[in-house]
Amino acid sequence: MNSKVFDMVVICSILLCIGCKGGEDKESHKTKGENVPQDGPPGMVWIPGNTYTMGAIEEDKEARSDEFPAHRVAVSGFWMDTVEVTNKQFRAFVAATGYKTTAEKKPDWEQLKKQLPPETPKPHDSILVPASMVFTPVKTENLLDWSQWWSWVKDANWKHPQGPESSIAQKEDHPVVQVSWDDAQAYVQWAGKRLPTDAEWELAARGGMENAVYPWGNDTNIRVHANTWQGTFPLYNSMADGYFTTAPVGSYAPNGYGLYDMAGNVWEWTSDWYNTNYYAETAKVGTVTNPEGATRPFDPQQPLIPQRVQRGGSFLCNGSYCSSYRSSARMRSSQDSSQDHVGFRAIMTPEQWKRMKKK
Q1: Dihedrals phi, psi of 264, to nearest 5 degrees
Q2: pLDDT band at 201 (very low <50, low <70, confident <90, very high)
Q3: Which of 39, 246, 291, 338 has the fewest CB atoms inside 10 Å of its own CB, making it the most exposed?
Q4: 3-state secondary structure at position 83
Q5: Separation CA 301–CA 241 (nearest Å)
């Protein structure tokens, strides 16, 4: 491997962590004593408090190990954005604050090397430039090596998701992408909201159907319900749904709570650290109320990289590789990573709404 390729693999390993029928239970269990609000923030819907089983159901044959064991959680009610944060909304944030995203800044080698084995050589300066990860179709039979279809592209950022020649013109209503966890956190704080916890996100995704595999139920005709990859991944996308990358938010029917794109389109950041042991530890203590996730990150595959949980799958999800359009599916990535298939949405608590109304 020549030095340039080695540098690319080093950076990619830091900036992207990717794995990549039946009846429906529509019963909803509200938290005792919960008062359903009579008003709420615009663009958001109320998700009623619920005690539910978090994690994969036994009937889900596509579930991965980090979706088990299923465990009981009780979550208080909150408002959630009906759609993923759009380019138009993110542009307003940038205009108001002058914020510069992670991908628009030169990587800090002193910070990056903390996530690498000791004595890892510093990459060439041509690699340590403002850039981000972009999906590139490739012919391969090895679906375990994600570095084949991801490229570190200079000047790829939220305004140019696939590189400097790309644009978000005519895509104001598409989800903003190429945003790191840090970027998403900055936006939600500005908006007076916050990122959902892992448990809040899954409760919302289920739409009141605790024993359904997908946010829409158990219908396996995925293309009808979500923006995913049709064809042979990662080479050919037939675009049977009309989209090669992102779709305008709200292009598909909402789930039972009125939320759009809780499956497919883009992965969504949550506030939780990713820890492979967390579900097993939680299952031992019985029902947990308003869990905030693990107190520390841990992934044996990337032990030096602190990672956050992502949810919902993306336009790259395909049954042959990444069937993560399921309600319990989880992914993770370092919080300083940004890719062209990752975005976010926010939630707001009753306390946050009260503060906003007083302004």
Answers
A1: 75, -170
A2: very high
A3: 39
A4: coil
A5: 34
Dihedral of alpha carbons 336, 342, 348, 353, sign: positive
- The whole-angstrom separation of Cα 108 and Cα 102 is 10
Separation of alpha carbons 120 and 100, rounded Å: 28
Name the nearest CA neighbour of 269 among 216, 324, 201: 201
Q: Is the peptide bond before 69 cis (omega within 30 degrees of 0)?
A: yes
Name residue 132's beta-bridge partners: 153
208 vs 50: CA distance, rounded Å: 9
What is the token pair recorded at 314?
């993306």
3-state helix, strand, coil split of the chain in percent (to 5) is: 20, 20, 60
- Contact, 335 vs 182, CB < 8 A? yes
Q: Provide the residue type at 263 as one letter.
A: A
Q: What is the DSSP letter of 275?
A: B
Report yes or no: 258 and 47 within 8 Å, Cβ to Cβ: no
Q: What pTM, to 2 d.p., does this model score? A: 0.90
- Express each pLDDT in 272-303 by its tens digit: 999 999 999 999 999 999 999 999 999 999 99
Contact 82, 254 (CB under 8 A): yes
Alpha-carbon span 278 to 208, nearest angstrom: 24
DSSP, residue by residue, 164-221: TT---TT-TTSBP-S--HHHHHHHHHHTT-BPPPHHHHHHHHHTT-TT-SBTTBS---
Average pLDDT, the chain: 90
- Report the C-alpha gap between 250 and 261 in whole angstroms: 7
45-85, pLDDT tens digit by residue?
Answer: 999 999 999 999 888 999 999 999 999 999 999 999 999 99
Q: Say which residue the tokens 């062209």 belong to.
A: 340
Residue found by looking up tokens 């693999």 in the block? 9
Q: Are 354 and 268 in contact (CB under 8 A)?
A: no
pLDDT-based confidence at 169, cuts 50/70/90? very high
CB-CB contact of 337 with 358 (8 Å): no
- pLDDT tens profile 309-327: 999 999 999 998 889 999 9
